[in-house]
């Protein structure tokens, strides 16, 4: 996959990264807007739809994930030779987060008992897209160079594998206790990762 993305003619133009960054920032901005607008609905209309800790937890985790994504994508500046394939991949990676953001807050809940009912009914889509972000992360990290990839050590492949397995389990089960356990484990590790690895960068 990496060879395919870098196979076309190299373009070592230093202005390409800022150009790509603008497009990514627009998509990230749309993600944050969608999530914050969704959160604001609970303040504006607290009794309109039944609030769910499960739904809110994943929404909060996704907001943190989007902010985290924008931070670590600064490392795209390490890519010296940009191609259209790399540019296209990075944009698709960001779009995955946009789909997740809009999926969490539908425009209408008339057919559902509340946000939890809606979330569980769309869990295959949500966790499918979430799993796709982890696959994309491997490619994205590899594009930034082998030194950067190996700097995360053995924890990185374990984290990616465990996260995908978590998504598969969450796609399969509707059990609320299991879903809440998976959410708790994911959020705790997410916070731990940011504090340990990215807090000083």
Kindly summarize this structure in a few lines:
This is Apolipoprotein N-acyltransferase. Keywords: Membrane, Transmembrane, Transmembrane helix. The chain is mainly α.
Summed up, the helix count is 9
Structural class: mainly alpha
Poorly predicted regions: none
Gyration radius (Cα, Å) is 18 Å
The tally of structural domains comes to 1
Span between termini: 28 Å
* Count of extended strands: 0
* Proportion of strand residues: under 5%
Q: How do the SSEs run, as a string of H and E? A: HHHHHHHHH
The dominant shape is globular
Helix content: over 70%
The overall pLDDT, averaged over residues, is 89
Q: Largest beta sheet, briefly?
A: none
Report on this model:
The protein is mainly alpha-helical and 201 residues long. It has nine helices and no strands. The longest helix has 29 residues, at 16-44. It is globular.
What descriptors fit this protein?
single chain, 201 residues, mainly alpha, membrane, transmembrane, transmembrane helix, Apolipoprotein N-acyltransferase
Topology diagram in text:
Blueprint: H1 2-5, H2 16-44, H3 53-72, H4 84-104, H5 115-121, H6 123-143, H7 146-150, H8 155-172, H9 176-198
Helix pairs in contact: 2-3, 2-4, 3-4, 3-9, 4-6, 6-8
């Amino acid at each position: 996959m990496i060879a395919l993305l870098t196979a076309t003619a190299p373009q070592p133009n230093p202005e390409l990264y800022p150009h790509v960054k603008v497009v990514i920032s627009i998509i990230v901005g749309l993600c944050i807007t969608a999530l914050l607008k969704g959160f604001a609905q609970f303040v504006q209309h607290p009794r309109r739809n039944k609030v769910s800790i499960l739904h809110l937890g994943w929404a909060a985790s996704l907001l943190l994930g989007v902010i985290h994504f924008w931070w670590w994508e600064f490392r795209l500046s390490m890519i010296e030779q940009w191609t259209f394939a790399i540019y296209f991949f990075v944009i698709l990676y960001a779009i995955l987060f946009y789909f997740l953001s809009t999926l969490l807050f539908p425009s209408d809940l008339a057919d559902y008992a509340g946000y939890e009912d809606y979330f569980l009914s769309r869990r295959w889509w949500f966790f499918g897209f979430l799993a796709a972000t982890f696959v994309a992360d491997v490619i994205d990290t590899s594009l930034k160079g082998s030194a950067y990839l190996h700097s995360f050590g053995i924890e990185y492949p374990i984290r990616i594998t465990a996260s995908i397995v978590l998504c598969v389990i969450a796609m399969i089960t509707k059990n609320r206790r299991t879903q809440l356990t998976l959410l708790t484990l994911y959020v705790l590790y997410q916070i731990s990762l940011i504090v340990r690895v990215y807090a000083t960068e």
